[in-house]
Amino acid sequence: MVKTKPRTPDEVWIPQANIKERPPWTVGISIFKDYKCDNKRLLTRCFEFDYQCSRIKKIVKDDSIEKKFKILLRSYYKWIKAGYKYYSTAG
Q1: Which domain covers residue 88, as residue numbers?
Q2: Is residue 68 part of a domain?
């Protein structure tokens, strides 16, 4: 003889009526609120810092060539920084 128990009915979920509405997302309330966007002044300061930390002066001995090289690097710095940012986040 098989003994069984009757099924119990599933509970019905009733959502709460007064759910708090979320404010729309803005940068000001996010974790990015303190992020500084690139501008010419910031890029210049970053370039000068990175250039001073580099070993270019040990590689390029001639001052006139170094000045030309620095001007060339400065003109491409925005893309160099963007490439570094991309590849550093890729792992």
Answers
A1: 60-91
A2: yes
The answer to whether residue 2 is domain-embedded is no
Q: For 9-65, how does the pLDDT look when each residue is reduced to its tens digit (9 = 90+)?
A: 888 888 777 778 888 999 899 999 998 888 999 999 999 999 999 999 899 989 999
**Distance between CA 16 and CA 45 in Å, rounded?**
53
pTM of the model: 0.62
Q: What is the dihedral of CA 86, 57, 66, 62, to 10 degrees?
A: -150
Residue-level pLDDT at 91: 67
Rounded Cα–Cα distance for residues 27 and 31 (Å) = 8
Helix (H) or strand (E) holding 42: helix 40-53
Whether residue 51 contacts residue 43, with contact meaning beta carbons closer than 8 Å, is answered with no
Q: Which residue in the block uniquely carries the two structure tokens 């910031």?
A: 42
51 CB burial (10 A radius; 0-12, 13-18, 19+): middle
